[in-house]
Fold these 2 entries.
Entry 1:
Amino acid sequence: MRSFVPPLSRMLLWPSLIIALSFWLKGGGEVGGGFPAGALAGLAVLLQYVVTGREQTRRYVVVRYAAPLAGVGLLLVVGTAFLPVLAGYTPVSLFPRPGQPGMGAGAFHLHTALIFEGGLMLIVFGLVVTVIDRFALSTANQGDEGP
Amino acid sequence: MPVLVLPILLSLACAPLAYFAGRWRPGAAAWVGAACAVAALAALCWELTLGPARLVLPWAPTWGLSLEFTRDGLSGLYAAMALSVGALVVLYSRAYMPHHLAEEGRPARDEVRFQVLMLSFMAAMVLLVTVDDLLLLFIALDLTTIVSYLLIGFDRDDPESRAAALLSLVLTGATSVVFFAGAMALGLQYGTFSLPLVFERAATQPASTGALVCLAVGALGKSAQVPFHFWLPRAMAAPTPVSSYLHSAAMVAAGVFLLQRLYPLFEPAVAVRDGLLAIGFLSMTVGSLMALVADPFKRVLAYSTIAQYGYALVLVALGSEGAPLYVAAHAPCKAALFLTVGAITQVTGKKKLSEVSGLRHSLPVLAGASAVGAAGLAALPLTVGFFKDEVFFHALVEKGPLFMAAGLVGAGLTLAYTLRLWWGLFGGPRQDVPAAPRLLVAPVVVLAASVLVGGLLPGLLVAPSRAAAAASMVHGGASSLELAYHLDARAENLLALGAWALGAALFATRLTWTPMLTRVLEGTSKVGPAHGYRVLLHQLDRLSTWLHEKEVRDLRDRVASVLVPTGLLGMTVLWVTPLRDRFIAGSVGWADVTLVMALAFASAAALATLRARNHLVLVMLISCVGFSLAMVFAFAAAPDVALTSVLVETTFTLLFAGLLALLPDRRLERAQKEAQQPRGRDRISAGIAGASAFLLSWSALSHLQADRVGTQTVKLAEAAHSPNVVAAVLTDFRGLDTVGEMSVVLAALLGVTSLLKLKGKG
C-alpha cells in the first residue's frame, strides 16, 4: 500500500512557504514577523527532507542556495541598519520616520522594517536548511561507511 | 570636498583593480596596480599644491563620531613615500615573485594574491597617514598590522615564515591595543576623538602621562624600537619585496609617523619625551651593533632599520623639525638596498654575506645604483642622506657635547655597517653570476636616482619638509628648516667628518673586532626581550594545555566551566546592585489558573529530564518544556512570542533528533550512564547556576514597570508605523541588537557548516 504521507507533504510545501511569506509581510501589523516566517519555511523544507530525502529536496533552487541566501539576508539586515548612516541618520533608522505619513493597507505597511524582517527571514531559513542539509549529508555518509 | 579623497580613493582602488587584472592575466596585476598607484601619487601631488584642507564626514553624530581626513604636509610626505616606493616595489615583485613562487613550488597565480596584498597594504598606509581622528588612526594601524601578517607569512608552507608572521602580529597587534587604550583615554579626557579638537583642548589641559605612554608604546612597537625590536629581524623571512616595502617606507615608518602626528600632545610632556629619547639612542646602539655582525644580508638591513628609526625617534623626541625629512630620506636608500639584496638572492641563490663577493663585475648597474643607496644611508654628501644626518646633528648640537658624541658614534657605526654590507656584496674576489633581469634592477636605479636628485638639488626638499614639520608642530607656525651645503667649519660638518673617519676606521679594522663583538652580542641575546618572548609563549602554551585538559576531560566539567562563573557573576551583580524590594511575590487569582497549569506542566517536564532513560526521551522532554512555555505565552496574550516559540521548538526538536543520529552510540550510552550518577561537584555547580538564574529572573520580574514596558512601548510602536509591538521592538527599538544577534546566527551557521564538513571528510 502506498503511503499518503509523501504526496501530502509535497503538496504542503508551497502553501507553507506562502504562509511564511504572509507572516513576513503582515509582521508589522499582526502576528508574524521575519523570524517565525523563516522558521516556518525551514520547517516546510525539513518535512521534505524527512519524507523525500536529500536528493529529491535539493532539486529546489531555494534549498540548494540556502547558505548564500543567509548571506544575502545579513546584507539586507546590515544594509537597512547602516545605509541611513550615510544620509546622516543614526544606525537602524527606519523609514518612514515616526511622524511621517505611512503607506499600506490592513496589516501590511510599506516600511523599511519589511526589508529588515526579510533579512531576518532569509538568515533563519538559511540556517535551518543548511544545518538540515549538513545533517542529511553526514547521515548519508555514515550509512555508506557503516558496517 | 571631493578633491581631498581622490588620492585615497585611487589608492583604495589599486588592490581591486590589480585583482581583476590578475584574473585576466596574472602578469597584468603588477602593471595595473603600479599604474593606479602612480595615478594616486599624481593626484596627491596636485592636491598638495592646493594647500592644507580637512574633510569631515559625520558617522554617528549622536555619539560625536565622524570620519575625519586631513591633507597637510605630514600626510602628504608620508603618503607620497608610501605610494612611490609602493609602485616601484610592486613592479619589482613582477620580476621577483614568479621566480620565488617557482622555488617554493607554488602556482604562478599566487603572484596576484601577493600583489593584491601589497597594494592593500599601501592603501592601508595611505589611509593611516591621511586620517585625522584617534579612532580611525587605530583602525588604520590595525589594518596595516593584519595585512603585514598576511604578507610576512606569505610563504605559508614555511614554518619559519609563519612563526615570524605570528611574532610580528602578536607584537605589533598587542602594542596597537595599548595604543587603543591611550586613544580611548584621550577621547574620554577631551570628549572627542577628532585630532584638531584634541590638540586645541590639550593646549590648556595637558594629556595624562599614562595615555601618552600608551600611545608611545603603540608607536614603538610598530617602529620596531627597543624593547619591541626583535620582531623585525625575524620578519625578514618574508619575500624580499615585502621587507623592502614594509620595513623601509611603510610599516615601521607608521610608528614614527604616529608620534609626529601626535607630537603636539607630547610636546609639553618632557618626561615622556626623555624616555623616547633614551629608547631612540638605545635602539640606535643595539641596531647598529647587531648590523655590524649579522651575516644574512636582510638581517643587516633589518638591524639597520631599527637603528635608523632610532635616529628618527631621537629627532621626534627632541622636537626637531627634521624628523619627517629624516624618514623620507631614509626610505628610498633602505628600499634600494633591500631590492638590491633581493636581486642578488635571486640570481645567486645565496642569502649570506659570507657566501658572496665581487659581484660588481657581473652586476655593474646594480652595484652602482646600490652604491648610491648605500651612500645615502651612510649620509655621504651629494646624496639626500647627507641632509638626514645634517638635521640630526643640527638637533644634537643644540643639546650639548654628550649628545653630539652619541650622534657621532651612531653615524660612524652606520657608515661602518653600510660599507661592510656593500663591500661584502660587491667587493672582494670576483664571482661570476648570470645577469639580473632588467625589471629587478630598474626600481633600484630609479630609487638611486631619486637619492641623487635629492642630494644634488636640496632646494627641492625644503618645501615639503617644511610643510611636514609645520603640520606636526603644535602652533602650526612656519618651519625654518634650511637645507644646503656649507663649506665651513660649523659643528654639523665637523661631526659628519668625524663620523666618516670613525666609520672608515671601523671598517678598516673590522677583522680584529668582529669575533669579539659577535660573542658579546650572542651572550646578551640570551637575556634579551626576544628570550622573554619565547619563555612567555612557552608558558602560555603550557597554561592553555593545562586549562584545556582540565576543561575538556569531562563534558560535565566543560558545561560547569561556563555555568558556574556565569552563575557567580549573576549573583555578584544581584549582591552589589542596591535595589529596594528586591524580591516581590505577586498574587495568584482564579484568572491565572491556566497559566499556572501550563507552568506546572513545564516544571514537571523539566524535572522528568533528570530521570530520562535515553537521549531521545530527553529531547522529547526538553521540547515538552518548550511547548508548555509556548502555551504560557499564548495564555498570557503574547501570540507572537507563542508562535515563534512553537516554530523554533519544533525545528529544534527535529534537529536534535537528527543530531542524535550523528553521534556514536557508545558515546551516548556513556554520557547517559554518567548523567545518572551525579557527582558532588555536579550538584554544586548545578545549584549555583540554577539559583543564580532563578534569583535574577525573580529580581527582574519584581521590578517590571508596567507603564514603561507596556503602555509606553505600545504608544511608541504606533508612532513607529508598526502596530505589532514585538516587531517594533525587534526591528526598531532594539534594531542594533537584532543586527548583532543575526551576525552571531550567521557565524554559528558557518561554524556548523565547516564542522560538519570536517566530519564528512574525516
Entry 2:
Amino acid sequence: MTQITIPDFALVVLVGASGSGKSTFARTHFLPTEVISSDFCRGLVSDDENDQAATQDAFDVLHTITAKRLNRMKLTVIDATNVQQEARKHLIKLAREYHALPVTIVLDIPDRVCFERNQQRPDRNFGMHVIQRQRRDLKNSLRSLEREGFRHVFILKGEEEVAAVQLEREPLWNNRKTDHGPFDIIGDVHGCYDELISLLSELGYQIENDQVTPPSGRKALFLGDLVDRGPKTPQVLKLVMSMVEAGTALCIPGNHDNKLMRALRGRKVQVTHGLAESLAQLEAELPGFKTQVADFIDSLVSHYVLDDGKLVVAHAGMKESMAGRASGAVREFALYGETTGETDEFGLPIRYNWAAEYRGTATVVYGHTPIPEPEWLNRTINIDTGCVFGGALTALRYPEKELVSVPALHTYAEPMRQFLPPEDRAPGLTSQQQHDDVLDIADVIGKRLVDTRLMKNIIVREENAIAALEVMSRFAVNPKWLIYLPPTMSPAETSKLPDLLEHPAEAFAYYRENGVPNVICEEKHMGSRAIVIVCRDEDAVRARFGVIGEGIGTVYTRTGRPFFNDKALEAAFLLHIRDSVTRADLWGEFETDWLALDCELMPWSAKAQELLQTQYAAVGAAGSGAMHEALAVLEQTTTHNSEIHALRERYQSRAGLLQQYIEAYRRYCWEVHSLDDLRLAPFHLLATEGKTHVDKTHLWHMETLAKLVTPGDNRLFATNYKMVDVTDMESQAAGIHWWAELTESGGEGMVVKPLDFIASGRRGVLQPAIKVRGREYLRIIYGPEYSAPDQIAQLRSRGLRAKRSLALREFALGIEGLERFARHEPLRRVHECVFGVLALESEPVDPRL
Amino acid sequence: MLLTITTTHQPATDLGYLLHKHPARVQVFTLAFGQAHVFYPEANDERCTTALLLEISPVGLVRGGGITLNEYVNDRPYTASSFLSVALSQVFRSAMSGICKDRPELADTPIPLEAKITALPSRGGEILLHRLFEPLGYTLTAERYPLDSAFPAWGESAYFTVTLTATKRLQDLLSHLYVLIPVLDNDKHYYVGSDEVEKLLRHGEGWLKEHPEIELITARYLKYQHSLKREALAQLVDVETPDAEETVAKHDAEEIAIEDKISLHQQRLGAVLATLKNIGARRVIDLGCGEGRLLSLLLKEPQFAEILGMDVSHRALEMATDKLRLNQLPPKQRERINLIHGSLMYRDSRLSGYDAAAIVEVVEHLDPPRLAAFERVVFEFARPHTVIMTTPNAEYNVKWESLPAGKFRHKDHRFEWTRAEFQTWAQGIAERFGYNVRFLPIGEEDAVVGAPSQMGVFVLGGING
C-alpha cells in the first residue's frame, strides 16, 4: 500500500501518458466535480473529445474552470497528460496566483500497457510512437518537477503501485478552525521580557519558575517579532517556546524572527534593526540553544485561521484573498505586508494599506507597524503599540475584543520613523470613521444580496440600485447619519363592508390568524415620517457618528433627505428634543450619549408643501371653481328645463364630495412660523448606545417615549394607543369603536401592530404594522370622489401581496442596518442595508396602498 | 369641464342650428373617457347660451398602471384640457367644419360670440392668455382661482375662468379653442403622434401662420416633439422663407430665462476643451457628463484616445447615448468612449488612472456637508493628473435682471460661490492633495463683479507640490 497525503486545498496535477490510467485514478480518489479533464474540455468546445485541433481552446476552458475553482478554495485535479514542462508551467502559475499548493502525481506506466489500453478504446487510434514520445517527455520531466515549483511530488511506478494507493487529505497547517480559544493575542514583544511578564500577569496567567499557567481554557497567541532591539530576547524566546511546547500558546513568525533564524542558520543577512542585540544576547546562552531557536522559528506557520474561520492572525496582516491559503506570497505578506514600491522621507517603504480595502468577514489581528493606539478598521486591528520604542505592550482578548496594555518600562530603541507622530488627520476621528468618510461605489451598485437576521439573502436588483444611487447621492443626508430607513406599511385587507375600503376587523384578523393574540393600536398621525438622531453634544456626535460640524443630531425623511431646509430651525428643534431627553434622563437610563427615534412630524404641510400646492390644493382649486360654475348653469337651466334635474343632483353631490376632500387635506395643514408650530410624535425608540430596542414590546416603546413629554408642551407629544386582544370580541369591538371615533373626528386612522416589535408566524416574520385608514382621509389618496358608489366598487379589488412582501423585506433590512450600527460595524455594512431599503422603495407598487 | 358659448346675434336661438343641438333638449354623448352633456341655460331671441359639460370618469384617467399618486388625485376631471378639445371635435363636429344645412350663410357670417371656459389651466399665467387670444381679435377677461382660500399664503392656482368676446364665425371660435386649450394646459391626455401635425394644420388653417406665438403654439401642441414641430413649421411657413430657422433661434433666445445659456455654456465648454488640448491629455473623464455636450466635443478630437463620461442620472446617460449616437458609431470611434453610471459621493476605482477630469458646473449641485466626500473621491482616489472645474460666479448674478437678489441660477444649486470663495476652497484642496491650481474667468468680464462663470485648473504637483 502506498500512502499519499495531500493538503485539502491544492492543485493536483496528474502526469502520465495517454492510457496510463489517469482518469481511472482520478475517479477512484476524487469527486467527479474536482476533476477537470482536457478530454472533457475538448468535448465541451468541439463535441469531440479527441479533436486535437481544439486543444488550445480546450485548455483555455480548463484553465478558466481551474482558476474559478481555486479562487473559491476548491481542491482541483487536472486530468491531462501534462508530460511537457510547457503544459505544467501554466498550471503552476495558476496555483501561485490563487495560493494553492501545487501537487503532482505521476503515473509511470510501461508503454505496452498504455498502448493496449488505448487499443481497447474505439475512439483512440494513437500509434505506439505517440505513447513512446509521451513517455520520453515524462521521463525527462521526473527530475525537474520540484524545481518547477511542485511542493509535493508523488511518482507511482507500474499498475500495481497505482492500484495500491491510499490517498488522504489533511488540512493546511494554517487551518486551526477547530481551535476556538479563547485567546490572548499579544503584539510585537521585541525582547521586552519584563513587560511581557507583567502583561501575562495582567491577563491572569500564573508564572512560576518559568512555568506559565493560563487562566482556565485560555491560550496565548503571539503575533511574532519576539526578538531584536529589546534587552531580553533569549528570555522571551524561552518563555514562548516552552508555552508553545506545552500547548498553552500559539506563535506565528515575524520578519525579525525570520531574519534571526536565517542568521543563526549561517545565511548572509544584514545585521541591522536590532539583530546585533539578539545575536549578542544569544551568545551568552548554552550552546545548542541557537539551534533550538532556529528550529523553533523554522517550524512556525505563516498565519493561522482560527475559530471556525472567524479569526485570522498574522504578523503583518492578511488579505482576504490570501487567508487560509499557502504560497510563498502568502508567507511574504504575513511577514512583511505589502508595499507600494514607493519610499517615504525616511527612506522606508510606504506600506500598502490592505486594511482599508479589507472586506472580509473574519476578524484579522496583526502587528508589525508600531502605532500609538490600537484601532479597529474594517474588522482588522493592529495591536503593535511599540513597546520596545517606549510605547506599550498590548494584548487583545478574543472573543471579548478587550484590549489590555502595559506601558514600556524604558525606551529600548529609537524608531526610524518618528513613533507617536503628530496625527495628520481631522481631530478626533478614528481610523474607521475617517475611512468611512468615503464609501466605495462597488459596495452598492449592481445586483446585491443582503443577508439579514430576519430574512436570508434579500435581493436588491440592479435597476433599483441605480435609482437609489441617484437619490442617495443628490438628496440624502451624510450617510454617517443614515443608520435606519423605515419600511413601507401595508394597509389592511379591503373591508367587507360595502361603503368602506379599510376597517380594523381585517387587521385584527390578520394577526389572529397568524397566531398573535395581542395587538396595539396606535393613532396614526398625518404628518411626515421623520427619523430623529439626537446626541448629548457635538462631542458625542463626533465620537459615535464620526460627523463634525453638523450640530447635535439630524432629522431626516423616510428616503434619507434632510427634513428641514432651514438649518436654524432644525438646530432649535434638536435642542428641544435633547433637553427633553435630559429632563427625562434617558441618557442615564440607557447609558447612552445618543438616541435614534422613529417619529411622525406634523404638520404634513411642513414637508409636503410643494405636493400640497401642486397637487392637493390645485385639485381642490380647479374642482371648486369648476363645480361652482357648473352648478350655476345647471341651476339656470332648471328654471326652464326639467330634463336637467338628475344631472343637477349628481353635480350637487359631486360638489359635496369635493368639499369634503378639501376639508380632509386642510386638517393636516397649518402654517409653520417657528418651532412652536411643529409637533413631533415619537413612537419607536430605535436604538441607543450598544443596543437596538427591537426586542421590546410596543407597549414598552410607548411608555418609554411618554417620558419625553411634558404636559402643556405640544411640540413633543405622546401617541394615543389602545391594546386589543384579538381573540376577544369585546376587546375588538372596543378597538373598532376607538378607530371610528378617531376617524370621524378627522383623524387619519390607526396602525395595528403586534405587541412584540418583531413577531413571527407560520411562514416567518409577520407584517410589523398594518394601517387602517379612515374614510375621509382616503379621499386624498384615492381621489375626491372615490366614495361614490360606482367608484368605490371599482376600487375594492386591490392586491396587497407586492406591498406586503416589500414591507417585510424593508423591515428586515432596516432592523439589520440598525443592529449592524449597534455592533459598531463599518459604515459600508450599515449603508448596504439603508441603501437596500431605498432601492426597494423604487420597486413599482400601487402608491395608494 | 365646462364651456358655455353665448350669442346675441338675432335670433339668438339660431345658435342651435349652428351647433346642430336643439335648445330645448338635454343631450348626452358618450365619449371614450366619459360623457358630454349639452344643454341651454338660456335660449331666447335676444340671447342664447349653450353649455358643454364634461363628466370624465376618473378610473379611465390612470395611465400605465398608476405609478404616482397624482394620477388618482388629479385635476383632469375638473379642468378644461385636451379632453375638452376632443369633446368639441366630436360633439360639435359639423359646426367646427363650418357645416350648417339649415343656416349655411350664418355659418359663414361673423356673429357676436362670448365663450366662457371654467377651470382653464394656463401654464404661463394670465399673460399667456392675453398673448394667445388677443392677436386673434378677442377681448379677454380672466378670473384666477386662489389655491386655497383657507391658506392665502399659498398664493394663486394656475386655473382661470376665462371669458372671450369677439365677433367671429362660430367655426373659428371652436378651432381656436380646440388648439389653444391644450396649449395653455401644456399637456395632452393621449400619445402625440404624427397625425397631430395634420390636426394642427387643419384647425390652424387661416390663423396659425400669422399668429405671433406660432412657435410656442406649435411646440406645446406637439408636446415638444421637436421633429414633429419642425415638420409642422415647414408646412406652415413657406420653405423659401429664409427666416424659419432664425425664428427658432430668436425664440430660443427669448426662452432662456436667466443666464444666456447657449453662449455662456459654449464658452465654458470651449475653455475646458482648450485646456484639455493644451495639456496634451489623452485619457479624460467627464464627471457629471449629463447629456454629453462636452463628450461630443471631445469625440471630435482624435487627441482624446479614451473618453469616459460619468453621471449620477441614469436618464441623462440614456439621453447622452442617443445624442452622441453611440450605438451607430463605427467600432474604432465607439471604443474610444464609455459611459458609466456613478456618483461623486462614492470612491470608484473605475475613475482611476486618467490624465484629466472635467467637472463642469457640478460642484454647486452638491450639499456643502457632502463636499468633503467629493473632494476625496476626485483628488485622493480618482487622482487624475489634471482636474478642470467650473462653477458659477455668484457675484455676477446682480447683472441678470430676471434673477431676484439672493436667488440661485438653478433650482438645484445648493450654493453659488463668489470668486474669493471658490479660490479659497480650491487652494485648500490643492494644498491638501498636492495639486497646483490656477484660475480663469469664463464669459465676458465685468470690472466689478467679474465674469459670469469661473474655472479652476488643478495640476498634480508631485512630491514638492
